[in-house]
Amino acid sequence: MTDGWNWSRPPTSSAHPPPGEPQQPSPWWSGGQADPWRDPYSPSAVVLPTPQSTGGTPLETPPNPDAPRRSVASTLVICLVTALLAGSVGGTLGFLFAVRGGYVEGNHTELGATGQNVPESAQRAPESYGGVVERVQPSVVTVRVSGAIGSGFVVSTEGYVITNDHVVEGADDVMSVSFHDGSTAAATLVGRDPESDVAVIKVAKEGLIPVALGNSDEIAVGDPVLAFGSPLALVNTVTQGIVSALDRTIQAGEESGTRRYYAAIQTDAAVNQGNSGGPLVDGAGRVIGVNSVIRSVGGTTAEAGNIGLAFAIPINQAKRIAEDIIDTGKARRTVIGAEVMTGESSIGARLQSVQPAGPAAGAGLKAGDVITKLDGHPLEDGIGLIAMVRKYAPGSVVAVEYRRGSKTASTSVTLAADTN
Predict the structure, then answer these.
(1) Are residues 350 and 367 located together in one domain of the fold?
(2) Hey, which family's this protein in (predicted)?
(3) Residues designated catalytic
């Protein structure tokens, strides 16, 4: 069997029997006489079936050529009206889609989703940075003293404001502050403590909102923080970072002026000149520190700028000093009752002398002892010991580890307030 490519006509005797003999049906062709394709060389004819061949079902009647036809003019009118209606509907829908999609030819393109009429303030969760700023910002002030600018924050409804001592240094008795809403008020100096770098001023304004104060002893490295203030005179500025380190012992101040000591909270939040005195706030909106100094690669104070190393006075220390200033006009300074040697390269704080009736002597410490840890915090030098002692309130009992000669020992010291 092939595909027909080499097909040839069968012999005449088999294809056409002699006249008079009945034709035998071909085994290859069923109904061969009625099949026009039975033989490529036989004449073909198309036979239309009679109505009976359709099983009694009449076929579709062909159109009458003599029937009246629709005029060309009426057909054109119908087509024109249909086209006009389709164009009108399409144009209307296209315009509506264009307007809803924010684009109309010749008009300004409007981007973004529409229909979301939710107030922006309602989109700020209380625990979000925006929610924290909304709560804290009304309590932050810009302090203006003799042309210089610093920061501060309201801590009572009576108008008391905590700031840095170096912000109000050299100020007259009267100064001014401004709030985030642009309002201003006069302020007076209540008191200051140069060695802790904490000062208190009082604002003459009603309806003040105090900040919430946190617990600086409970924070941890890695906690998120926000720094508020007026860096470089840019008022109402907020920057974000984390707690980078704790108990970073700081000695600040000019060589010929007051030396300031504290165990600081280190942060990488952007802090610059003008942030001094502003609050460092935790993720819940509670003040945990007072922004005070920065570390910079600049050679002078005027060249100093943020490099991600800023330091804040712990709020527990600042709060205690501020309460002393408000209650008594003077802050108590916490001491250990000993003088330390500075400039040594050995690890620890070497005691140069010990007051006979002081806390150190009462704990059994002697001159020449080297204190290596205070309350579990390692000490590198005498500055570290002074800064760590100032962190605690008078009357606190702290554990001390020290070295005497080649031997190590430990004791407890009850810190006291300086009587001077």
Answers:
(1) yes
(2) Belongs to the peptidase S1C family.
(3) 166, 197, 276
